[in-house]
Amino acid sequence: MYNSRIIGMGHYVPENIVTNDDLSKLMDTNDQWIQERTGIHERRWAVKGDGNSTFSMGLKAAEKAIKNAKIDKDDIDFIVFATLSPDYYFPGPGVQVQEALGIDTIGALDVRNQCSGFVYGLSVADQFIKTGMYKNILVIGSELQSQGIDISNRGRSISVIFGDGAGAAILSREDDSNKGILSSHLHSEGAYALELAAEAPGMGKRWVTDIIAENNPDDMSYRPYMNGQFVFKNAIRRFSEVIHQGLEANNLQVSDIDMLVPHQANLRISQYIQKKFKLSDDQVFNNIQHYGNTTAASIPIALSEACEQGKIKSGDTVVLAAFGSGFTWGSVIIKW
């Protein structure tokens, strides 16, 4: 058995900055209302024609991760791509990255676990490396959500939250069992699937052809829906549980955490967890203030920025934790 270790991170976000004041011109909202409920000041939204897509942003993040890992792209053995907003209904963007990088016919796996997608993807890659099947795996989380949200009063509770961007990691074989990913912990609870969902196309009820034929401007079935308070209550509960689970599995205490990188769903959730675990500001990394909730991209963007800023050092105990649609949630415990 081997261990796996992150040897390079990279991220990319669109240049277009959309502030809360910008949104106040499009819907009945304001900067104070948004900040009080989410902690978000601004987010990045791709603009039609700027060349950004889920695939292209993921590719740019991947290229930076490869450069920072100091490996050749041909050293990559496998690709895992997490997203809820692929360029095509099918195929997924993993194969697009494989083709764009010009890598030989390596495998590419697409993960559809929304906000916990990167944690799930990292766990899958870790297992492939631990068993000796692969040596270097590229894991990407990328989202272009701005083109699929309702930018009006009707959709403001959702549209003010989400942003676009991508993050990527190179996971590599590590012989030292005391370094790298120590464990990952994954969970789901499908009973609450529709509390945070976009129903159509799918469900065996209505497909794109039905939506087009009906041409109903009030049809919201294909737009994201979120039961905000219910999601919040479940998130803080599951975040706590899965972080404790990861620590206990490795005989670690909360005091051993050097850096917690939570999924950037809502600053209030992160602050609640920080307070509950009695962590200092230096022990928790948040950037939702500038990027909003970038779903599968949020953890890799945050982890990449934390590395860039020197906030994570060799030997640090790093905890990743996510909760989102599904419901799905998970944690990864890393000895950096």
Percentage of residues in helical conformation: 25-40%
Rg measurement, Å: 19 Å
Quickly give the structural class: alpha/beta
Estimated share of beta-strand residues? 15-25%
Strand order of the largest sheet: 1-7-6-4-5
Question: What is the H/E string?
Answer: EEHHEHEHEHEHEEEHEHEHHHEE
Number of H- or I-type helical stretches: 11
Overall, the morphology is: globular
Give the second-level CATH assignment, the architecture of the largest domain. Answer: 3-Layer(aba) Sandwich
Number of structural units classed as domains: 2
What is the total tally of β strands?
13
Q: Could you give me the name of the CATH homologous superfamily of the largest domain?
A: Thiolase/Chalcone synthase
Query: Roughly how many Å apart are the termini?
Result: 19 Å
Low-pLDDT residue spans = none
Mean pLDDT: 94
Query: What would CATH call the class of the largest domain?
Result: Alpha Beta
Main beta-sheet strand count, sense and barrel state: 5 strands, mixed
